[in-house]
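**User:** Everyone, produce a chain:

**Assistant:**
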Amino acid sequence: MTSLTDGTDQLLYGWGRTAPASSRVLGPARLEQLQQLVTSRPARGVLARGSGCSYGDAAQNTAGCVLAPVTDTVVDLRPAAGTLYASASVTFAALLSAVVPHGLLLPVLPGTRHLTVGGAIAADVHGKNHRRDGSIAAWIEEIELLDGQGELRFLSRTRDPEAFFATIGGMGLTGIILAATLRLAPVRSSLLNVTARRLAGLDAVLAALEEAASLYSVAWIDTTAGGRQLGRGIVELGDHLPQPEPMAEPARLGYRQGRLLPAPRLPFCPVTPWSARAFNSLWYRKAPAVRRGLAGLAEFFHRLDAISGWNHALGPAGIVQYQFAVPAGEDRVIVQALRALRDCAPFLGTLKRFGPASGAPLSFPLPGWSLAVDLPAANPRLGAVLAALDQRVAAAGGRVYLAKDARLSRPAFEGMYGDLAAWRATRARLDPAGVFRSDLGRRVGLC
């Protein structure tokens, strides 16, 4: 993997399958090979790619080089120190399988176990406990980064903090993340106590999330309800058991992924405004007013992963996920979004309460609220509706999540993320020739 004649030409998609891109795909590679590739400065640039979990074009580089996987997988658990060293291409599923039997857990678990370590850092991922524990940035001890001059750097909060925070949430545009050292959290059980409450409107859902004392909290929102039922949903709270449950987990602790169900690959989109309303209404009405029980890690954190390839079940046009965050006190934007999207066949919505931001310039979470809505990309009205929502989110001091984005314009991006002069200066220092590029970066003006 030392020249552009290596690798294969492939058509790459994001998870939403809306913007395919043809690239030269290479990897895994040794450090010396990566250094040779970077210093050769390919005409259309280089981008590291994880598992392709970004919905849009964040992990695509049209007509350029894409490293997928970047490296071989390496996992080095250090139980005494409560840390883990992992190469960038290791998935969260592999990490959880390695650490949970030792009574340890990654403190931040995103919504899919297929995400890689490198992708998680590049997107500064968050979980259902952001209000308490922040994003993954709070748990990174060190990042191994190959910069645009082929130099291997070891980044931390005390060693080049500007480069450290520019890389976290930097969408792979500061260099190739090779590996990272992460702090872990102790757990005594691989089960959680879960309480779910059905609530009749958005005010009640927001209040329940605001008052939640549990470690984990999230709400499923009926994105099709209107009137006094607007924003009705099911709030789910979770906490780790303080001790193992002998009957439910007689063996050692573990991350058990369960049996996969195949999703059909349909030639049409089954989601219409009518079917979306029917599905959401049924899901809401069949839920009990209060439900308490135990859930395993995979069931609680990675429910959708139980359906293999579910993104193919919504037809060839794919999916758009619109996820935005707005500051506390700006929940009126959530109301506006739910009203605007009702006729665009929204079929899945989740709401979270966010805590303090990580300090990384391109990190998504900010203190306040986050709403994520999945929509069929084929809807002809969707582009105009989302463009209007972009303006409302930006005016409220909010932002759209780049890892989920497939269509944000450069002016809208600049209105949300503000002055990035310091981030651009750090990127120029790390990559003076502009080797690292992506379709997302070109679209919003980051590269």
